[in-house]
Amino acid sequence: MVPQRGTKLKEKFGKFVELTSEGGSEEAYRIMSEFQLGSHYYAALQSEAMREEGEVEMLRLIENGDELELENIESDEEWETAAEAYDMLCFDDSND
To answer: Which InterPro entries match (predicted)?
Structure first.
């Protein structure tokens, strides 16, 4: 399955989105990539601390009317599939 690029979050929030942790603190995350894979839409986000480690947070994007919600991916298999799709997009970007 080939991921299809998207821009839903960037169109609504710009380059960064603020997320609230379980502890209630807010942190800015750069929107690294958005893509659709099958029937699901994903976003790869990166905080400043994650950038230093070379990591990204992979979340599922849910549309609820005009609202966009991000949710954790609970399934290891789904997370791996989304991460592989993100890697494919990054690899393609390096060849542009």
So the answer is: UPF0473
Q: Largest alpha-carbon pair distance within the chain?
A: 41
Calpha distance 49→20 (Å, rounded)? 15
| 5-24 tens-digit pLDDT | 999 999 999 999 999 877 88
**Residue ranges of the alpha helices (H) in 39-95?**
48-53, 76-94
Measured CA angle at 44 (ends 88, 83), to 5 deg: 45
Short-list 53, 17, 52, 49, CA closest to 33: 17
Q: What is the pLDDT of residues 30-62, one digit of tens each?
A: 999 999 999 999 999 999 989 999 899 999 999
C-alpha 54/C-alpha 56 separation (Å) is 7
